[in-house]
């Protein structure tokens, strides 16, 4: 049985990856996109993270979870648009630095971390911890997802076409 391999119009095998790696001329735009994306993730995530859903009297930090998903999504989008995994990490680092600066420079009354009410952390303090720790985890996840999205295809079906 003979398999007919289809060739591109230039006679080469079909490309395995739709998104090639970033060219050196695209790096300044990738850095700019990372700074803007990280800033957007930090601002929107910080505004959103304190939203708490109460289910049967139990506070669920839904805003913090949504903030982590948003920041991760923005980092993956920037990396795929810039065609480089590096920009996912840079976007997350920018967001993390800005969140850290906002937390350290803001008035102490705005930060509920370390506050206990009746022997337990209030849901808003838990949301803050989820946002800060989740942002770091989301950055690692964004790098992994970007790698997966930009990796060369290793599927045997791609060669059989």
Automatic annotation (TrEMBL):
<feature type="transmembrane region" description="Helical">
    <location>
        <begin position="31"/>
        <end position="54"/>
    </location>
</feature>
<protein>
    <submittedName>
        <fullName>Uncharacterized protein</fullName>
    </submittedName>
</protein>
<keyword id="KW-0472">Membrane</keyword>
<feature type="region of interest" description="Disordered">
    <location>
        <begin position="1"/>
        <end position="27"/>
    </location>
</feature>
<feature type="transmembrane region" description="Helical">
    <location>
        <begin position="60"/>
        <end position="81"/>
    </location>
</feature>
<feature type="compositionally biased region" description="Basic and acidic residues">
    <location>
        <begin position="1"/>
        <end position="10"/>
    </location>
</feature>
<feature type="transmembrane region" description="Helical">
    <location>
        <begin position="93"/>
        <end position="114"/>
    </location>
</feature>
<keyword id="KW-1133">Transmembrane helix</keyword>
<feature type="transmembrane region" description="Helical">
    <location>
        <begin position="126"/>
        <end position="150"/>
    </location>
</feature>
<keyword id="KW-0812">Transmembrane</keyword>
């Amino acid at each position: 049985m003979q398999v007919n391999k289809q060739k591109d119009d230039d006679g080469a095998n079909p490309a395995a990856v739709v998104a090639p790696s970033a060219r050196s001329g695209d790096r300044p735009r990738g850095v700019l996109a990372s700074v803007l994306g990280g800033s957007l993730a930090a601002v929107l995530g910080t505004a959103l993270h304190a939203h708490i859903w109460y289910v049967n009297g139990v506070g669920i930090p839904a805003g913090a979870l949504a903030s982590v998903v948003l920041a991760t999504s923005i980092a993956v989008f920037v990396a795929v648009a810039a065609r480089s995994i590096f920009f996912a990490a840079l976007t997350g680092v920018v967001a993390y630095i800005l969140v850290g600066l906002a937390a350290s420079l803001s008035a102490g009354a705005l930060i509920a971390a370390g506050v206990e009410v009746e022997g337990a952390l209030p849901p808003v303090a838990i949301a803050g911890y989820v946002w800060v720790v989740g942002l770091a985890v989301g950055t690692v996840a964004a790098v992994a997802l970007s790698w997966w999205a930009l990796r060369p295809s290793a599927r045997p079906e791609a060669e059989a076409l």
